[in-house]
Amino acid sequence: MVFFFTFIYRFYGLSKISGPPTSWFILSFPKMATPKKKKMPVHEENQDVDNDSAMAVPSSAIPPPNISSIKNKMRRTHEFIKLKRQRRKEKKELQKKRKRETEALGDDAPPKKVPKTIENMRVFDETMVDPQDEEVLHDEAHDEMASYFSRDARPKVLITSSDRPRSTTTRFLKELGQCIPNSEIYYRRGLDIKKVIPQALAKEFTDIIVINEDRRKPNGLLLCHLPDGPTAHFKISNVKLHDEIKRAPKSTEHYPEVILNNFNTRLGHTVGRMFAALFPHDPQFSGRQAVTFHNQRDFIFFRHHRYLFKNNKRVGLNELGPRFTLKLRSLQKGTFDSKFGEYEWVHKRHEMDTSRRKFFL
Questions:
Q1: Which residue from 177, 155, 104, 182 is spatially nearest to 274, judged by alpha carbons?
Q2: For 319-331, what is each residue's pLDDT tens digit?
Protein backbone atom coordinates (compact mmCIF):
# COMPACT_ATOMS: atom_id res chain seq x y z
CA MET A 1 0.00 0.00 0.00
CA VAL A 2 2.86 2.42 0.88
CA PHE A 3 4.55 1.56 -2.42
CA PHE A 4 1.34 2.42 -4.36
CA PHE A 5 0.97 5.89 -2.84
CA THR A 6 4.68 6.55 -3.31
CA PHE A 7 4.29 5.72 -7.04
CA ILE A 8 1.35 8.13 -7.41
CA TYR A 9 3.28 10.82 -5.55
CA ARG A 10 6.29 10.58 -7.86
CA PHE A 11 4.30 10.14 -11.13
CA TYR A 12 2.06 13.17 -10.77
CA GLY A 13 4.55 15.36 -8.96
CA LEU A 14 2.23 16.03 -6.05
CA SER A 15 3.01 18.07 -3.02
CA LYS A 16 4.33 16.28 0.03
CA ILE A 17 1.70 14.17 1.80
CA SER A 18 1.38 15.04 5.43
CA GLY A 19 -0.71 13.59 8.14
CA PRO A 20 -1.49 10.09 9.26
CA PRO A 21 -1.53 7.22 6.75
CA THR A 22 -5.37 7.08 6.87
CA SER A 23 -5.58 10.45 5.12
CA TRP A 24 -3.19 9.63 2.27
CA PHE A 25 -6.05 8.83 -0.14
CA ILE A 26 -7.11 12.53 -0.09
CA LEU A 27 -4.93 13.84 -2.93
CA SER A 28 -5.01 17.19 -4.67
CA PHE A 29 -4.48 16.78 -8.40
CA PRO A 30 -3.21 19.77 -10.39
CA LYS A 31 -5.77 21.74 -12.39
CA MET A 32 -5.91 20.84 -16.05
CA ALA A 33 -5.88 23.61 -18.59
CA THR A 34 -9.26 24.09 -20.31
CA PRO A 35 -9.11 24.62 -24.09
CA LYS A 36 -10.01 28.13 -25.20
CA LYS A 37 -13.16 28.50 -27.30
CA LYS A 38 -12.32 29.44 -30.85
CA LYS A 39 -14.11 32.52 -32.08
CA MET A 40 -16.21 31.99 -35.15
CA PRO A 41 -16.82 34.62 -37.80
CA VAL A 42 -20.06 36.51 -37.61
CA HIS A 43 -21.48 35.11 -40.84
CA GLU A 44 -20.91 31.49 -39.63
CA GLU A 45 -22.76 32.17 -36.35
CA ASN A 46 -25.74 33.57 -38.24
CA GLN A 47 -25.72 30.50 -40.50
CA ASP A 48 -25.95 28.17 -37.45
CA VAL A 49 -28.87 30.18 -36.09
CA ASP A 50 -30.69 29.87 -39.40
CA ASN A 51 -30.15 26.10 -39.47
CA ASP A 52 -31.55 25.73 -35.95
CA SER A 53 -34.64 27.78 -36.82
CA ALA A 54 -35.15 25.75 -40.01
CA MET A 55 -35.06 22.47 -38.06
CA ALA A 56 -37.47 23.72 -35.34
CA VAL A 57 -40.76 21.77 -35.26
CA PRO A 58 -43.99 23.73 -34.71
CA SER A 59 -45.83 22.97 -31.47
CA SER A 60 -48.98 21.86 -33.33
CA ALA A 61 -47.04 19.07 -35.09
CA ILE A 62 -45.83 17.58 -31.82
CA PRO A 63 -48.05 14.62 -30.91
CA PRO A 64 -49.74 14.76 -27.52
CA PRO A 65 -48.13 12.71 -24.76
CA ASN A 66 -49.32 9.18 -24.17
CA ILE A 67 -51.46 9.48 -21.05
CA SER A 68 -51.60 5.73 -20.47
CA SER A 69 -47.84 5.68 -19.90
CA ILE A 70 -48.20 7.89 -16.79
CA LYS A 71 -48.04 5.55 -13.80
CA ASN A 72 -49.34 7.97 -11.19
CA LYS A 73 -53.11 7.49 -11.15
CA MET A 74 -54.02 10.97 -9.90
CA ARG A 75 -51.76 12.68 -12.42
CA ARG A 76 -53.03 10.41 -15.20
CA THR A 77 -56.65 11.27 -14.36
CA HIS A 78 -55.83 14.98 -14.24
CA GLU A 79 -54.13 14.84 -17.65
CA PHE A 80 -57.03 12.90 -19.15
CA ILE A 81 -59.59 15.47 -17.92
CA LYS A 82 -57.37 18.24 -19.26
CA LEU A 83 -57.13 16.54 -22.67
CA LYS A 84 -60.91 16.04 -22.85
CA ARG A 85 -61.49 19.71 -21.99
CA GLN A 86 -59.07 20.77 -24.71
CA ARG A 87 -60.71 18.53 -27.33
CA ARG A 88 -64.16 19.82 -26.36
CA LYS A 89 -62.95 23.39 -26.76
CA GLU A 90 -61.44 22.66 -30.19
CA LYS A 91 -64.67 20.98 -31.30
CA LYS A 92 -66.76 24.00 -30.28
CA GLU A 93 -64.41 26.37 -32.09
CA LEU A 94 -64.65 24.24 -35.24
CA GLN A 95 -68.45 24.24 -35.04
CA LYS A 96 -68.55 28.03 -34.65
CA LYS A 97 -66.20 28.40 -37.62
CA ARG A 98 -68.38 26.19 -39.82
CA LYS A 99 -71.50 28.06 -38.74
CA ARG A 100 -69.92 31.41 -39.68
CA GLU A 101 -68.88 30.02 -43.07
CA THR A 102 -72.40 28.67 -43.70
CA GLU A 103 -74.00 32.01 -42.82
CA ALA A 104 -71.54 33.86 -45.04
CA LEU A 105 -72.15 31.61 -48.07
CA GLY A 106 -75.93 31.56 -47.63
CA ASP A 107 -77.65 29.47 -50.31
CA ASP A 108 -74.30 28.52 -51.83
CA ALA A 109 -73.22 26.73 -48.64
CA PRO A 110 -72.39 23.02 -49.05
CA PRO A 111 -74.92 20.52 -47.63
CA LYS A 112 -74.49 19.40 -44.06
CA LYS A 113 -72.48 16.20 -43.75
CA VAL A 114 -74.34 13.16 -42.47
CA PRO A 115 -72.39 11.53 -39.61
CA LYS A 116 -71.33 7.95 -40.15
CA THR A 117 -73.01 5.52 -37.78
CA ILE A 118 -73.22 1.74 -37.58
CA GLU A 119 -76.89 1.93 -38.58
CA ASN A 120 -76.45 3.86 -41.85
CA MET A 121 -73.33 1.82 -42.71
CA ARG A 122 -74.99 -1.55 -42.15
CA VAL A 123 -74.20 -4.45 -44.46
CA PHE A 124 -76.69 -4.74 -47.31
CA ASP A 125 -79.41 -7.31 -46.65
CA GLU A 126 -81.36 -8.84 -49.51
CA THR A 127 -84.39 -9.39 -47.28
CA MET A 128 -85.11 -5.69 -46.71
CA VAL A 129 -88.86 -5.08 -46.98
CA ASP A 130 -90.64 -2.49 -49.07
CA PRO A 131 -94.12 -2.05 -47.48
CA GLN A 132 -95.68 -1.36 -50.90
CA ASP A 133 -94.20 -4.42 -52.60
CA GLU A 134 -96.85 -6.73 -54.07
CA GLU A 135 -95.17 -9.88 -52.77
CA VAL A 136 -95.00 -8.45 -49.25
CA LEU A 137 -98.66 -7.42 -49.36
CA HIS A 138 -99.61 -10.91 -50.55
CA ASP A 139 -97.65 -12.55 -47.69
CA GLU A 140 -99.27 -10.22 -45.15
CA ALA A 141 -102.74 -11.14 -46.40
CA HIS A 142 -102.07 -14.87 -45.93
CA ASP A 143 -99.76 -15.16 -42.93
CA GLU A 144 -100.65 -16.33 -39.40
CA MET A 145 -101.50 -12.80 -38.17
CA ALA A 146 -103.83 -11.99 -41.09
CA SER A 147 -106.96 -12.62 -39.02
CA TYR A 148 -105.89 -9.94 -36.54
CA PHE A 149 -105.09 -7.29 -39.15
CA SER A 150 -108.34 -8.00 -40.99
CA ARG A 151 -110.15 -7.40 -37.64
CA ASP A 152 -111.65 -10.90 -37.62
CA ALA A 153 -110.08 -11.73 -34.24
CA ARG A 154 -109.88 -9.65 -31.07
CA PRO A 155 -106.58 -10.07 -29.19
CA LYS A 156 -106.69 -11.94 -25.89
CA VAL A 157 -103.36 -12.70 -24.23
CA LEU A 158 -102.42 -15.34 -21.67
CA ILE A 159 -99.42 -14.36 -19.53
CA THR A 160 -97.67 -16.99 -17.43
CA SER A 161 -94.21 -17.79 -16.10
CA SER A 162 -91.90 -20.67 -15.31
CA ASP A 163 -92.72 -22.93 -12.38
CA ARG A 164 -92.54 -21.33 -8.92
CA PRO A 165 -91.65 -17.74 -9.93
CA ARG A 166 -89.89 -15.44 -7.49
CA SER A 167 -91.17 -12.07 -6.33
CA THR A 168 -89.36 -10.03 -9.02
CA THR A 169 -90.80 -12.19 -11.80
CA THR A 170 -94.27 -12.03 -10.25
CA ARG A 171 -94.17 -8.23 -10.15
CA PHE A 172 -92.92 -8.17 -13.73
CA LEU A 173 -95.89 -10.32 -14.81
CA LYS A 174 -98.36 -7.95 -13.16
CA GLU A 175 -96.85 -4.83 -14.72
CA LEU A 176 -96.70 -6.49 -18.14
CA GLY A 177 -100.38 -7.37 -17.75
CA GLN A 178 -101.16 -3.71 -17.06
CA CYS A 179 -99.43 -2.69 -20.32
CA ILE A 180 -101.26 -5.24 -22.51
CA PRO A 181 -105.06 -4.86 -22.51
CA ASN A 182 -107.31 -7.97 -22.49
CA SER A 183 -104.57 -10.02 -20.84
CA GLU A 184 -104.91 -12.56 -18.02
CA ILE A 185 -102.19 -13.89 -15.71
CA TYR A 186 -102.08 -17.57 -14.78
CA TYR A 187 -99.56 -19.57 -12.78
CA ARG A 188 -98.39 -22.77 -14.47
CA ARG A 189 -97.87 -24.99 -11.40
CA GLY A 190 -95.56 -27.37 -13.24
CA LEU A 191 -97.74 -27.74 -16.35
CA ASP A 192 -95.95 -28.19 -19.71
CA ILE A 193 -96.46 -25.53 -22.38
CA LYS A 194 -97.71 -28.19 -24.81
CA LYS A 195 -100.57 -28.87 -22.39
CA VAL A 196 -101.20 -25.14 -21.83
CA ILE A 197 -101.79 -24.48 -25.57
CA PRO A 198 -104.97 -26.64 -25.93
CA GLN A 199 -106.46 -25.09 -22.78
CA ALA A 200 -105.66 -21.60 -24.09
CA LEU A 201 -107.32 -22.40 -27.42
CA ALA A 202 -110.41 -23.65 -25.59
CA LYS A 203 -110.66 -20.28 -23.79
CA GLU A 204 -110.14 -18.35 -27.07
CA PHE A 205 -106.74 -16.87 -26.29
CA THR A 206 -104.86 -15.51 -29.31
CA ASP A 207 -101.36 -15.31 -27.78
CA ILE A 208 -99.33 -16.86 -24.97
CA ILE A 209 -96.46 -15.07 -23.23
CA VAL A 210 -94.18 -17.15 -20.98
CA ILE A 211 -91.62 -15.39 -18.78
CA ASN A 212 -88.63 -17.52 -17.75
CA GLU A 213 -86.29 -16.63 -14.92
CA ASP A 214 -82.75 -17.38 -13.78
CA ARG A 215 -81.22 -16.43 -10.43
CA ARG A 216 -84.55 -14.92 -9.35
CA LYS A 217 -84.65 -12.48 -12.27
CA PRO A 218 -86.49 -12.61 -15.64
CA ASN A 219 -84.11 -13.74 -18.38
CA GLY A 220 -86.32 -15.07 -21.21
CA LEU A 221 -89.62 -14.42 -23.01
CA LEU A 222 -91.51 -16.92 -25.16
CA LEU A 223 -94.19 -15.44 -27.46
CA CYS A 224 -96.50 -17.96 -29.13
CA HIS A 225 -99.25 -16.82 -31.51
CA LEU A 226 -102.35 -19.03 -31.60
CA PRO A 227 -103.63 -21.13 -33.21
CA ASP A 228 -100.99 -21.62 -35.97
CA GLY A 229 -97.93 -19.87 -34.62
CA PRO A 230 -95.25 -18.63 -35.10
CA THR A 231 -93.31 -18.90 -31.83
CA ALA A 232 -90.50 -16.49 -30.96
CA HIS A 233 -87.99 -16.86 -28.14
CA PHE A 234 -86.28 -13.74 -26.77
CA LYS A 235 -83.62 -13.04 -24.20
CA ILE A 236 -84.61 -10.39 -21.61
CA SER A 237 -82.10 -7.98 -20.08
CA ASN A 238 -82.00 -4.62 -18.27
CA VAL A 239 -85.37 -5.10 -16.56
CA LYS A 240 -86.60 -2.12 -14.54
CA LEU A 241 -89.94 -2.21 -12.81
CA HIS A 242 -92.28 0.65 -11.99
CA ASP A 243 -90.88 1.22 -8.51
CA GLU A 244 -87.31 1.46 -9.85
CA ILE A 245 -88.13 4.31 -12.25
CA LYS A 246 -87.98 7.80 -10.74
CA ARG A 247 -91.22 9.76 -10.54
CA ALA A 248 -93.16 7.17 -12.55
CA PRO A 249 -96.95 7.65 -12.35
CA LYS A 250 -99.37 4.74 -12.42
CA SER A 251 -100.76 3.50 -15.71
CA THR A 252 -104.47 3.44 -16.51
CA GLU A 253 -106.64 0.87 -18.28
CA HIS A 254 -106.84 2.84 -21.53
CA TYR A 255 -105.84 1.09 -24.75
CA PRO A 256 -102.33 2.39 -25.64
CA GLU A 257 -100.95 3.43 -28.99
CA VAL A 258 -98.37 1.01 -30.44
CA ILE A 259 -95.16 2.30 -32.07
CA LEU A 260 -92.91 -0.08 -34.03
CA ASN A 261 -89.53 1.26 -35.19
CA ASN A 262 -86.91 -0.14 -37.59
CA PHE A 263 -88.33 -3.61 -38.29
CA ASN A 264 -87.10 -3.53 -41.88
CA THR A 265 -86.22 -7.10 -42.96
CA ARG A 266 -88.59 -10.01 -43.62
CA LEU A 267 -87.67 -11.48 -40.25
CA GLY A 268 -88.10 -8.12 -38.49
CA HIS A 269 -91.40 -7.58 -40.29
CA THR A 270 -92.73 -10.89 -38.90
CA VAL A 271 -91.56 -10.08 -35.37
CA GLY A 272 -93.11 -6.60 -35.54
CA ARG A 273 -96.46 -8.02 -36.66
CA MET A 274 -96.36 -10.46 -33.72
CA PHE A 275 -95.91 -7.55 -31.29
CA ALA A 276 -98.67 -5.55 -32.96
CA ALA A 277 -101.09 -8.50 -32.67
CA LEU A 278 -100.90 -8.27 -28.85
CA PHE A 279 -102.77 -4.94 -28.68
CA PRO A 280 -106.30 -3.87 -29.72
CA HIS A 281 -106.79 -2.02 -32.99
CA ASP A 282 -108.39 1.20 -31.79
CA PRO A 283 -106.29 3.00 -29.15
CA GLN A 284 -107.99 5.28 -26.65
CA PHE A 285 -106.29 8.63 -27.20
CA SER A 286 -107.82 10.10 -24.06
CA GLY A 287 -105.44 7.98 -21.98
CA ARG A 288 -102.40 9.48 -23.79
CA GLN A 289 -100.42 6.24 -23.37
CA ALA A 290 -97.97 4.76 -25.88
CA VAL A 291 -96.09 1.45 -26.01
CA THR A 292 -92.89 1.48 -28.07
CA PHE A 293 -90.92 -1.41 -29.57
CA HIS A 294 -87.75 0.22 -30.89
CA ASN A 295 -85.30 -1.99 -32.79
CA GLN A 296 -81.71 -0.79 -32.81
CA ARG A 297 -78.85 -3.11 -33.82
CA ASP A 298 -81.11 -6.16 -33.27
CA PHE A 299 -81.89 -5.11 -29.69
CA ILE A 300 -85.61 -4.40 -29.15
CA PHE A 301 -86.18 -1.74 -26.49
CA PHE A 302 -89.60 -1.78 -24.79
CA ARG A 303 -90.89 1.47 -23.27
CA HIS A 304 -94.27 2.49 -21.85
CA HIS A 305 -94.95 6.25 -21.71
CA ARG A 306 -97.68 8.80 -21.11
CA TYR A 307 -97.32 11.99 -23.13
CA LEU A 308 -98.31 15.44 -21.83
CA PHE A 309 -99.06 18.52 -23.94
CA LYS A 310 -97.27 21.47 -22.32
CA ASN A 311 -98.27 23.94 -25.04
CA ASN A 312 -98.93 24.01 -28.78
CA LYS A 313 -95.33 23.08 -29.62
CA ARG A 314 -93.92 21.17 -26.66
CA VAL A 315 -94.75 17.66 -25.45
CA GLY A 316 -93.44 15.94 -22.32
CA LEU A 317 -93.09 12.23 -21.57
CA ASN A 318 -93.61 10.32 -18.33
CA GLU A 319 -92.32 6.77 -18.29
CA LEU A 320 -94.78 4.38 -16.64
CA GLY A 321 -92.78 1.15 -16.71
CA PRO A 322 -91.79 -1.59 -16.97
CA ARG A 323 -88.65 -1.15 -19.04
CA PHE A 324 -86.69 -4.01 -20.62
CA THR A 325 -84.65 -5.07 -23.66
CA LEU A 326 -85.28 -8.07 -25.92
CA LYS A 327 -82.87 -10.01 -28.13
CA LEU A 328 -84.30 -12.53 -30.61
CA ARG A 329 -82.88 -16.04 -30.18
CA SER A 330 -85.09 -18.12 -32.47
CA LEU A 331 -88.26 -18.07 -34.54
CA GLN A 332 -90.18 -21.35 -34.88
CA LYS A 333 -92.95 -22.21 -37.31
CA GLY A 334 -96.21 -23.29 -35.69
CA THR A 335 -96.82 -23.46 -31.96
CA PHE A 336 -94.21 -24.33 -29.39
CA ASP A 337 -92.52 -27.71 -29.95
CA SER A 338 -88.97 -28.00 -28.65
CA LYS A 339 -88.32 -31.51 -30.02
CA PHE A 340 -89.98 -31.76 -33.42
CA GLY A 341 -90.61 -28.09 -34.26
CA GLU A 342 -89.32 -26.55 -37.50
CA TYR A 343 -87.22 -23.48 -36.89
CA GLU A 344 -87.41 -20.65 -39.38
CA TRP A 345 -84.46 -18.73 -37.90
CA VAL A 346 -81.95 -19.47 -35.10
CA HIS A 347 -79.31 -17.06 -33.89
CA LYS A 348 -75.86 -18.70 -33.97
CA ARG A 349 -73.53 -16.17 -32.46
CA HIS A 350 -70.14 -17.50 -33.61
CA GLU A 351 -71.29 -18.11 -37.18
CA MET A 352 -73.60 -15.15 -37.79
CA ASP A 353 -72.04 -12.28 -35.81
CA THR A 354 -69.12 -11.84 -38.21
CA SER A 355 -69.46 -8.05 -38.50
CA ARG A 356 -70.65 -5.28 -36.21
CA ARG A 357 -72.52 -3.75 -39.15
CA LYS A 358 -74.58 -6.84 -39.96
CA PHE A 359 -78.15 -6.92 -38.58
CA PHE A 360 -81.01 -9.35 -39.05
CA LEU A 361 -84.09 -7.34 -37.99
A1: 155
A2: 998 999 999 999 9
